[in-house]
């Protein structure tokens, strides 16, 4: 029939292909393998899959490059092959097309967890390199898919448009046609249209029926052509394999409804097979774009600005008096008597809050959320519960955080957490659905009264959100930039790794001043010469100047404790005019040492 891609979709409905990952998995490729690398190491397998979809009736086939970006490939050591993998992906799809009247779409997906390690310029560059490589390989259009963050999709869209090719911009919506942060389908469609997308639409998600509802909402506010690539429903895990139950007939029937709603490009995402595409192509043969009703802007409530922590907090005293938080380790067993005694003694000394780490060094201790609630109830002091991303997936984190709010836990320090391999539990695995940046964003969303999908949860959790900061690095500006990103996501205070170097302390104060949040320097009293050498040489994030290690050299027992306390007091006296508080970390759970320092600080603050 001929004509460019945009000319074609103006007059006919085009059939896309189906899942690539699902089919490669079905062909024996392991789930933990890198599918995109197959373009280089098993090209015939990729060619055969393209051929299957073409035989089924696909008129638009996607390159096997969804995750072929620097953030994902560098995580497995092949970041230098980004351009090669994308070009080869385009070449393979073009070879499979072999002169047929079909289009090749260059597939680009989100950067994933690795994005958090990149600055804004590096994120843009990652998308630019991928888009340019796909264009060089000969694709007819670019399809951006499975993005759940609108800001990231807008960045990818800007990069893709620089190729001059048509760009399809698809989002993966959650329940209720919302994105993370509460952005509705209508708002997303308007923003993508304004950003220059050629087609807008949705892919992935819960299944055809929910995607149909999303498509109708997008169609109500934009007259741009729409794209739809639904999943084949929810997967079921059976005998070690993921099985999708949606039949090709059901899938094709929903596709007809999507065309009636305005879709001009219809394919499949997770769980769809060449058979799904074959039945859909038969049903939609000769289909024309549906007449669209007049569109108009929909009045919507804008997404709220970053929430501030609700209610009273230990930070209410910041600027009025010296604020002191003290870290205590939860017990390894069920006996809470010592930590309760320590909390009482610290409260009496004037401490403002107790920090409770969560399974530090990946070693099992009592759950800190329940313990935080007990300390609040029994002692009457605020508790800052450290929450890691290691032990729970996104579902579990949301549930536990809402439960923590119910228990009265009001302050959270968000940390990525030590990997499970560091601990003693053989067979334990790390989850890391989130990292410290995205956990802070989740906490901020919960404060606003929505969950990760933007669905309402009620009045909001009211957490005071904290972040960790490590000043003991060669390039402090890198850590400051990371902290700035955490502040932008919702952090309202920071606690640092232990600092012993006054010059480094001054650099930290100067370089974080513009962030406008309290930064509590960590103070970990030393207890002996061997302790000082161990911390300096073996504990990541801690650096102790030679002069201090020389003072501690050879000291043990009470002499070591006295000297360590003297060094801590000297640091506090030298810095008190520059900060409004401290984060004390008593060694080996010796809260008695922290009691002395709390009294010392409060007597001078």
From TrEMBL:
Q: Which residues bind Zn(2+)?
A: 204, 269-270
User: Its pathway?
Assistant: One-carbon metabolism; tetrahydrofolate interconversion
| InterPro entries the record matches | FAD-linked_oxidoreductase-like (IPR029041), HCY_dom (IPR003726), HCY_dom_sf (IPR036589), Mehydrof_redctse-like (IPR003171)
Keywords (alphabetical) are: FAD, Flavoprotein, Metal-binding, Methyltransferase, Oxidoreductase, Transferase, Zinc
The reply to whether rRNA-binding figures as a keyword in the UniProt entry is no
Where the record annotates domain Hcy-binding, the positions are: 2-284
CDD domains per the UniProt record, alphabetical: MTHFR
Top-level division of the source organism's lineage: Bacteria
Query: Keyword Zinc: yes or no?
Result: yes
Q: Which cofactor does it need?
A: FAD; Zn(2+)
Pfam families membership: MTHFR, S-methyl_trans
State the protein's name: Homocysteine S-methyltransferase
| Organism, scientific name | Geoanaerobacter pelophilus
Please spell out the taxonomic lineage of the organism that makes this protein: Bacteria, Pseudomonadati, Thermodesulfobacteriota, Desulfuromonadia, Geobacterales
